[in-house]
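Problem 12. The chain below contains 247 residues. Write out its predicted structure in token notation.
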Amino acid sequence: MRCNSLITISFLSLVAGSSTVAQEASLPAASHVVAQMLARDAQRQCSLEGYEGMRRYTLVNDHMHKRAEMVVRVRGDEDGTKHFEIVTETGWKAAQKHVLHKMLDSEAEASRPQERVKARLSPDNYEFQMIGSEKAGDRTVYAIDVTPKRREKYLFRGRIWVDAEDYALVRADGNPAKNPSFWTKSVHFLQAYQKSGPFWFPLTTESVTDARLFGTTDLTIEYFEYKPKTLTAPQDSVEVAQRGAHP
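Solution.
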């Protein structure tokens, strides 16, 4: 009986191993997926004159019993440069000034063409390793581990998911390659994207920051009313996930 069990286990292990090998053989190389992602992104950018949208930032620190919210209007130029306009601010004033405002300044700086090239998901900045394929809703995505080539504030270490049809970024999960400051022990983020017509826009960003003095701070960014300014207007709807925003 024990001998039969060992034979069964060995057979199942062989079958599982064969399935894994077959799946790996059918997967494209990570370098191919990344090259396609960069090419498709360039094509989509060529059809855009820019975009506009809204964001809601919600920051919560339970240790300090503090909360801050901010609604922001964002405008993207044809070259990708971002401009922010704060619409409303409520709650924790110190967090608004020293955290949320600085986030906007940092993102605006990183969006400039000369800076953006240093942070984009490309072989110049990252090493890529194909992990596998999986389902995200009704779409197939490739899971790829990313390792930064430098310890810089705009790079991160983690995993990305790339749509297998559009070769667009669907999700990113990771940690900054370099901590923002001595007072920050760790930062983890998860960013999700959503397709709207032929374009992909951010949907949500969730991050958890563990600081030496203030403990854990949770930040959620909701993206809504994102609309492209197209050179040739697409037929599909361009409005993204209005999530009960207050103008």
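Discussion. The radius of gyration is 21 Å. Students who got a different answer should revisit the alignment rule from Section 12.3.
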